[in-house]
Amino acid sequence: MTHKGGKIYNVAVYCRLSKDDGTELESQSINTQKQILIDYVKQNGWRVADIYVDDGFSGINFDRPNFQRMIKDIEAGLIDCVITKDLSRLGRNYLDCGLYLEVFFPEHNVRYIAVNDGVDTLNKSAMDITPFRNILNEMYSADVSVKVKTARRARFKQGKFMGTSAPYGYIKDPNDNNHLIIDEKAAPVVKMMFELAKGGMGIGKIRKHLTEQHILRPAAMAVENGANYERYFENKPENRYVWSNNSVRAILRSPVYAGHVSGYKRPIPSMKSKKRLSAKPEEWEYIMNTHEAIVSQADFDLVQRLMTSRRKEYVGSFENHFSGIVKCADCGYAMRAQKARRAKQPDEIDNYLYCCNHYAVNGNTVCTQHVIEARDLFDAVLNDINLHARMAVENDAKMVLTLQNRLNTISSTALKSSQKEQKRLQKRLNEIDKLFSALYEDKVMEKITERNFDLMSRKYEMEQLEIEHQLSQVEIVLQEKMHNDSSIRDFVQLVKSFDGITELNATILNALIEKITVSERTKNNAGEMEQKITIYYRFVGSLDDSFVYQTKKEPAPLAERVCSHCGEAYVPGSGAAKYCKACSKIVRREKANANKQKHREEARKKPDEKAA
User: Fold this and answer.
1) Which residue stretches of 158-309 are H helix?
2) Which among 45, 65, 35, 41 has a CA at the least distance from the CA of 53?
3) Are the C-beta atoms of residues 30 and 71 closer than 8 Å to each other?
4) CA 230 – CA 226 distance, rounded (Å)
5) What is the pTM (predicted TM-score) of this model?
6) From the CA atom positions of the chain, what is the Rg in Å?
7) What is the pLDDT of residues 320-379, one digit of tens each?
8) Can you tell me the distance from the alpha carbon of 269 to that of 283, in angstroms, rounded to the nearest whole number?
9) Alpha carbons 134 and 278: distance in angstroms, whole number
10) Rounded CA gap, 36 and 19, in Å?
11) How far from the centroid of its chain's Cα atoms is residue 346's Cα?
12) Distance CA 111, CA 294 (A)
């Protein structure tokens, strides 16, 4: 590469390094690149138009501040030559590098030189091998990327916390930067948030409560722990206590508070892309029990269930304690609370009922109403809880034994069926192993063709995979069917604590009950309309079905009004009444006479209009 034709170039000196040396000064390698390139420009008698340095930027993408500044100067006509130490300093993405070398630079009459690689866009023969250099440069980046990802995954599998900063409620262990320990200042706030969520409080209300209580938000707490977020609160100290819905949701969703680390929540599709695709929580990867938990696993799971179910805490002025719990017994959809179309009742609960949301949205082609009065549901659940709580208080040992016998009786048939199925599947697996051996012997002895051997092998292999899958499902069922005595004791101790309650709230319901299903109303042998509800308790599932019977709602007495006709006080018969009983007849008669007179006048006008 020599000075050709005596042209004096205005040269852009471009330097790049993917990682700096951790100081405020430019890395030594950048200085070396800069010195080599400036000397090269001087030796050729050219001018240095400007020096562009991207220190600490990857070569995979070209969204680098000084590179983009250089591109703008090229477009403005200030530069007609670009030089770098080698081709990888320009970039390690062979597609984009090719675009600049073969399209952008030639379109803007810019010469490109990579000093150490012997690349010069004026030298056509040297440019023939340049695309292969770009591919090799990208392969190097890909190899480094794979090694970094492998190392990070290995550390993650060991249960190491890989985040830059500790999550709210934790601090990094001074003795192990990849281990979390509880932050005694923030942990009580996390516990309070989970307690509020268990009580049925939504994200918006929790956020409002935290803000009103003047509790430091996560970024402000991080500042106190040494993080560099102070710029967010300059001249706005009140922002330290303003929580957001996203902050509350992120804390309530994070398994870190149950003692687990999670990762790969936003995987990068390619090393060339900066976009991160958000994965669903069930797609995250978890390493369990890596540090001390702030909340129990049971409480964490309960909050996840409450957040996942669509919850509407209030319908008008009615406090909907059963939100997210009560379901249609036939289609499985949630039951919605709605105002009843009848005269207003004195107690607010008597003005509301529940019906199948699937029916309400899509009509009777998908389900039926399954209407149940809010009062009837409330009373049935309250009575059932008190019944089991009283049994537990009077003799908890007897109740444990009763539940063990009851639940074992319920599951014994299914348990025997699953055990029988397990034996059948295992026997068939053994038979397939023998068939494979016999099939291979036939092939060796040339009793079967290669084609038939392949066909039969694939058939048996598919059957083998299917049986192994079925066997794994049966084993899961067997484990589920083996009832755990400790779970029954947990339920007995839990329900005992609610003995004698007279009111229900979301905290009680969420602590005790998984779900409640409501069946459609039917007529029993006595001619009464009855409705079955099934309560599924935590730990033990459903115990006994409850039945509610349709009740007639008496309208609330209406207050006295003043008659709009005579001005006297009276008690109205309906909410729409405007007149007392006597004046109502008079007003109706007067309106009827006025209508007759109007019709007569209209009839007299019609002949006159026709004559005219």
Assistant:
1) 187-198, 203-212, 218-224, 245-253, 297-308
2) 65
3) no
4) 10
5) 0.49
6) 39
7) 888 888 999 999 888 988 888 877 888 888 889 999 988 988 888 889 999 999 989 999
8) 15
9) 31
10) 20
11) 41
12) 62
